Amino acid sequence: MYVLGLILFVIHIVAFVAGGANSVLMPFIGPRLATATPEVRGQLMGIVEGVAKVGKYAMATLLVSGVLVLWLKWDWAIPNNWFWVKMALIVVMIVFISLNEMNARKARQGDQEAAGRSKLFGQLTGLTFLGVLVSAVFAFN
Q: Hey, how many other C-beta atoms are within 10 angstroms of the C-beta on 74?
């Protein structure tokens, strides 16, 4: 079980990196949507959709592997209150990701204001991601 717990922890970290890449890229791509020509907007949306898909799989992997790691590596023991801060920030991050998904649908339909809001949602998601990272370090070290 110890080795399985370590393998799941590695999977958890890899998913964290994949999700983090999404949080870093979107604030750079999103603002360009508002001023892009229709052709370039289509290309950018292709990148956005690919990165978003990776982010969704990463989030699902994080949720499943996180529960399994807490069980196998930590025996359900909550290390401290930073763990709950981390969990609350994960919920906030999921809310921002969901809002960005709804916003992206509007942007795909040509809504210029939605394309402009993409930057804000990307920044908020990235900031929340940073909070999750910091609180995870405090929770587990």
A: 13
